[in-house]
Amino acid sequence: MRRARVDVQAPVVVVTVPIRTVSESNAREHWSKKAKRVGKQRDDVCMCWRAAMNARGRTAEERAPWLAWRDNGGVVVRLVRVAPRALDDDNLCGGALKAVRDQVAVELGLPIAKPRPGQRHLVADDRDPRITWTYGQERGDYAVEITVEQRRVREFPEVR
Fold first, then answer.
1. Nearest Cα residue to 149 out of 137, 136, 135, 131
2. Count of CA atoms in the C-beta half-sphere (13 A) of 16
3. DSSP secondary structure code for residue 66 in this structure
4. Could you say which architecture CATH assigns to the domain 5-155?
5. Torsion-angle region of 88 (φ positive above 0: left; ψ -120 to 50: alpha; else: beta)
6. Per-residue pLDDT of the chain (160 residues; tens, 9 = 90+)
7. Is the pTM of this model over 0.85?
8. Distances in Å between the alpha carbon of 66 and those of 8, 9, 75, 76, 111?
9. Staple 42 to which of 16, 26, 103, 145, CB 3.0 to 4.6 Å?
10. Closest to 77 (Cα-Cα) out of 124, 138, 132, 130
11. Domains of the chain, residue spans
12. In this structure, what are the phi and psi dihedrals at residue 134, rounded to the nearest 5 degrees?
């Protein structure tokens, strides 16, 4: 007989970044303005992530809990866009949170692609199957909430 398995998730890291995200597919703007906005979003995510990880009173294990994700079944990363007005679901995951997702992938230590000349930010491969990306949105002042949960597998006794 096989044992039943259930994925149980426990919260590991929650970071709130006070940035305004827009629908990239609906934004009609010059490429340099978009590049500047994306760069600022990535810088803000990097700064808030590292500030949260280096907070006073945290042990090394609490500062970097994702280091064990490779051995423990992976992680679930939830990106929640907080704004006064909601976006369509297709605009949410396709464009509005892309820069945030890219920087979170770098901060999680995913493999880095070879940088191109003049490239400002590192690019990580966020297609790793051990990471599940989920998206959501809430009403409130502009921000993005990043939650990283470690997937755990719990074994149950045999069922007859």
1. 131
2. 8
3. G
4. 2-Layer Sandwich (3.30)
5. beta
6. 333 333 444 557 788 999 998 887 767 789 888 889 989 999 999 998 888 877 655 655 555 656 666 567 788 899 999 999 887 776 666 688 999 999 998 888 787 777 777 777 777 878 888 888 999 999 999 999 998 887 766 655 666 6
7. no
8. 16, 13, 8, 11, 14
9. 103
10. 132
11. 5-155
12. -125, 155
Tokens 């992530």, residue? Answer: 49
Burial 125-159 (b: 16+ CB within 10 A, else e): ebebeebebebebeeeeebbbbbbbbbeeeeeeee
- Measured distance CA(144)–CA(157) in Å, rounded: 40
